[in-house]
Every structure is written in C-alpha cells, then in structure tokens.
Amino acid sequence: MSRIWHSLRQTLLAVLCDRYAIVVMVGAVILYSFFYPAAYRHQVAGNLPVLVVDEDHSATSRELLRKLDSLRVAHVVGQPADLQEARAQLEAGQAEGIVLIPANLERDILRGHPAKLVLLGNGAYLGRASWVLGSVADALGAFGREAAVTQAAFMGAPQAPPVTLVQRPLFNTQEGYGSAIVPGVAELIVHQTLLMGIGVLLGGRRLVLGRRLQFDLPTLTGMALGFGLIGLFGLFWYAGFTAWVQDYPRGGNPLGQLLGGTLFIAATVAFGLFVGSFFRTRERAFQYIIATSIPLFFLASLSWPAVMTPRPLVWLAQLLPTTSGINLMVRLNQMDASLAEVSRELITLVVLLVLYGALALWRLHSPKRTEEIEL
Q1: 118 - beta bridge partners?
Q2: What global pTM score does this model have?
C-alpha cells in the first residue's frame, strides 16, 4: 500500500512539475470553463435581420411592422418593394427571414375574412432560422389574436378554442443553445485534456528512456489513482462550479454523478494509459488527441441523433468512454436521471474500464521494473 501512495504522490508531483502537463490537465480545464461558455452566455440568437414586404400599406400593416421591429430576436432592416427583391437580399445573406404582408390585409380583417401572412426563413444556419421563424411566428400569432378582437367588434365574439396549448421546457428552461451544448462539451474537454496530460507524461518519459515503458503493479495503480483525482477535479469543476457560475441546468442526482463520474474518469484513465503507451514523444499526444475532439463529440450522439448515424459508427462509438460518459453526466446533472435510467451507460463504462485496464496492463505492466514517471 505504501508503494501505491508513493506512486500517487510521484504522479501528482510529475504533473505539477511538468509545465506542459499542468497547463493541459489543470490550466486548460479552468481556462475553458470561463471562456468557452462565455460565447453562449446569451443562450439565444438576438437582433437578427428580417425583411418586411408590405403590399397592404395600411394602418394595420404598419402596426404589425412596429410589433416585429420590437422583438428582441429580430430587427427589421429593410422593406423591399416586392418579394423577388427581398428574396435576392435573403440569398445574399443580408437577412435571416422575410415577412410578406399581402394586399387587402386590413380589409379582410375588417370584413371577417381569413387574412394570410407569409413567413420565409433562411435555413443555412439552423439555430438562427429556428429562432427567427419561431419568434416571428409567435408575434404574428399574437397579432392574429388582436385581429380577432377587431373582427369581434363587427361580427360578434368568436368562440374560444376548446384546447389551449401551454408549453413549458422541463430541463433546458431557457431553451438556449448553450444549455444544450456546453454541458456535453465540458465532459469532452475533461476527457481530452486528461488524455493529453497522460500522453505528455508517458511520451516524455519514454523519450528520456529510449524504450517502451514498464511499471510494476503498485506503481501503475498509483499512477492511475493520481490521474483519476485530476480528472475528477476537472469533471466536477464543470458539473458544479462552472454550471453554477454560468447558470446552466445543474444539481440533479449528486450521488449518481459521483458514481457515474468516477466510472467515466476511471474508464478514461485506463483508455489514456493504453493509448499513451504508444506515444514515443510528448508532442504525439497533442497531434493525435486534439484532432479527435470533434468526431468524438458527434459520435456521442448528443448533437446528432444516433438514428441518423451509420450503424457501424454507432457500434464503434460504444468503445469510446466519451459516448457513455457524456450522455451519462448530462442526464444525471441536467436531467436528474436515476441510476436505473442510466444503467446502460454505467454498465458500458464498467466494461470499458475492464477492457482498457487489461490492455493498459498488457502494454505497461512488468513485475520486474519499478520505474517512476517523474521527469
């Protein structure tokens, strides 16, 4: 046991004394926790340009124009003469949406006839298009309800609809892009920085020795514990402090997070020791691991549904700790899932821990050597 604790201390000292390792494993985690979520602090798009084609030129159409221009998410930037001109501006990227107010809008409303409004959106940027179309559609719906009041003055009050839809978001209360993406990316950041740190230390040590690394079991166990403590610090830094500071959904099932987060980090450490055993220099850790970040995030199926992914890639993704780990932590922290609801991810992480732990032992374990990782 004393040799395990000695190896644990040596691992932590090696991280603290190696400027590359401390910057990657600790500095980058803290730095990203402030700067990456800052890009999404407003959560939703705002002040996006919209064109209005007014073919009615009435007091009603001017009132509608004022309502559209008062929206936080949209800003009327022009009133082209016709739809063709507006479409040309939309295709040129000068606007995100077009609202067409047809001729005789006011006359139809006053006569009790159904009036029509046309809303067109640019789908090149899905996030912008969704917010523009949704917000403008809500404004047009509110305008339609006011028009019904005007009609009632001439034709009598309309009958109330039998069902009223009330929508309330359950987990992503602000319905923001940041709350949907940042928590998952946080787990990926912890995973990638941990892998790079392990690769930097193992690759640097192998470069000094000029041969394949070999450790006895107590030394290897202490190394894994040291890396695991650093990984847990980063994981719960994001799940707790960062989520609180940036005001993202948080706080669900803390005991489940402790269990699931420990398994996620343990599987990541085992995976990192196995992968890091192949690096001959510390630079290889940066070259290979950074390039995998975006594919790993998409394979986790957090932003891209698994049903839209080729089946071989879905199967391959199950071999990566990020796939189960990201979904596990998001569901436990943001959605307050129970352990039974994430049992599949927990079992997958246990299997990966055993698999990559065995591979790491195969690559790094030798009962005859007692090397230290200090540099």
Answers
A1: 100
A2: 0.69
Segment 316-373, tens digit of pLDDT: 989 999 999 998 988 888 777 888 888 999 999 999 999 999 999 999 887 665 555 5
Token output for 180: 């949907």
Among the listed residues 275, 326, 226, the one whose alpha carbon sits nearest the alpha carbon of residue 18: 226
Give the DSSP per-residue string, 181-235.
HHHHHHHHHHHHHHHHHHHHHHHHHHHHHTS---B-HHHHHHHHHHHHHHHHHHH
- From CA 128, how far away is CA 231, in angstroms rounded? 35
Half-sphere exposure of 356 (CA within 13 A, CB side): 25
Indicate the burial class of 327 (C-beta count within 10 angstroms; 0-12, 13-18, 19 or more).
buried
Q: Where are the beta strands (DSSP E) in 67-172?
A: 74-78, 97-101, 118-121
Residues 6+ apart with CB under 8 A from 148: 158
Q: Are 25 and 52 in contact (CB under 8 A)?
A: no
Q: Could you tell me which residues are beta bridge partners of residue 51? A: 78, 98
Q: Name the least confident of 28-32, 168-172, 238-242, 264-268.
A: 168-172
Region label for 93, one of left (φ > 0), alpha (ψ between -120 and 50) or beta (otherwise): left
51 phi and psi angles, rounded to 5 deg: -105, 145
Q: How far apart, in Å, do the first and last CA atoms of the chain sit?
A: 23
